[in-house]
Amino acid sequence: MKEKLTIVKVGGKIVEEADTLSQLLADFSAIPGYKLLVHGGGRSATKIAAQLGIESKMVDGRRITDAETLKVVTMVYGGLVNKNIVAGLQAKGVNAVGLTGADMNVIRSVKRPVKEIDYGYVGDVKHVDAEVLVSLISRGVVPVMAPLTHDGEGNMLNTNADTIAGETAKALAEAFDVTLIYCFEKKGVLRDAEDEDSVIPVITPDLFKKYVDEGVIQGGMIPKLENSFSAVEAGVSQVVITLASAIDGKSGTIIKK
Ligand SMILES: Nc1ncnc2c1ncn2[C@@H]1O[C@H](COP(=O)(O)OP(=O)(O)O)[C@@H](O)[C@H]1O
Ligand SMILES: CC(=O)N[C@@H](CCC(=O)OP(=O)(O)O)C(=O)O
């Protein structure tokens, strides 16, 4: 039987606020067994970019990343956010190591081809080195992955954190019995944006299509669910979308194929 691995992805709103981040790190530290944390930080990048006079543009939940924006996201995700999380986990006795995709060549990507939209320095994941991660995890190290990848030619690329979590979960599904938990500021995928308690308990691809057509599911939730279905299809045992203060996976929305 495979050993259990819990992968938690934490998004921008939780990461941005010291109190919610601190609570999340405490809850994450309490998860028994092997674990890995993926963080976003989109809101922090937008804020710091604005302070530097750089305007942020998002299309379909993805940041248009020009050369100046790439510098900002590399500093914010690979530096500020990642290192604060690593330090926070170390303070709780968790032996965390911060990684971008370039570190130990853990995630290679290719610059997204220009079609209708030129996303700039945004990477589409090509390969996750499961072996590197397995060797760290089985030594008791907890990888903390930033939403940055590299192209193998010396360039960093900005990559959506939900995608990093989904692709990492898929790559590790052969070695571990993986549970992937996307946590954010809501109780799960909601049927009514105004009603915090309208959590949809289980989502299938058919229900997803219906809810997108009805406009119930939109914005950043679309790539989150696409990544979730892709992970379940590829053998990830359980995918859950839930509240950041409920990462035990016992509530929220369960993703089924
Ligand atoms: N049906 C829905 N249920 C919950 N959230 C939804 C729904 N449709 C759209 N959203 C939006 O998706 C957002 C989450 O996506 P995103 O901002 O990419 O997440 P993260 O905070 O994890 O980076 C929520 O803040 C919410 O505004
Ligand atoms: C290409 C792309 O869009 N990258 C994202 C990476 C950060 C992210 O995904 O952060 P959240 O999880 O907080 O949304 C961005 O720059 O916003």
Based on helices, strands and strand pairing, what is the structural class?
alpha/beta
Number of H- or I-type helical stretches: 8
What are the low-pLDDT stretches, counting only 5+ consecutive residues below 50? Answer: none
Helix residue percentage: 25-40%
Distance between the termini: 23 Å
Average pLDDT taken over every residue: 97
What is the global morphology? globular
Provide the CATH architecture: 3-Layer(aba) Sandwich
How would you sum up this structure, described in words?
Keywords: Amino-acid biosynthesis, Arginine biosynthesis, ATP-binding, Cytoplasm, Kinase, Nucleotide-binding, Transferase. One of its GO terms (biological process) is L-arginine biosynthetic process via ornithine. Belongs to the acetylglutamate kinase family. ArgB subfamily. Substrate binds at residues 41-42, 63, 158. GO terms for molecular function: acetylglutamate kinase activity; ATP binding. The mean pLDDT is 97. The protein has one domain (3-255): Carbamate kinase (3-Layer(aba) Sandwich), CATH 3.40.1160.10. It has helices spanning 12-16, 18-29, 42-51, 67-91, 130-138, 161-172, 205-213, 221-233, and strands at 3-10, 34-39, 58-59, 62-63, 96-99, 107-111, 123-128, 142-145, 148-150, 156-158, 176-184, 202-203, 238-243, 253-255. The protein is built from eight helices and 14 strands. The strands form four sheets. Strands 5-8-2-1-11-13-14-12 form an eight-stranded mixed beta sheet, sandwiched between helices. Strands 3-4 form a two-stranded antiparallel sheet. The radius of gyration is 17 Å and the shape is globular. Strand 3 (58-59) and strand 4 (62-63) form a beta hairpin. It has 257 residues and is an alpha/beta fold. The chain binds adenosine-5'-diphosphate and N-acetyl-L-glutamyl 5-phosphate. N-acetyl-L-glutamyl 5-phosphate (X2W) is lined by residues 11-12, 40-42, 45, 62-63, 73, 122, 147, 158-161.
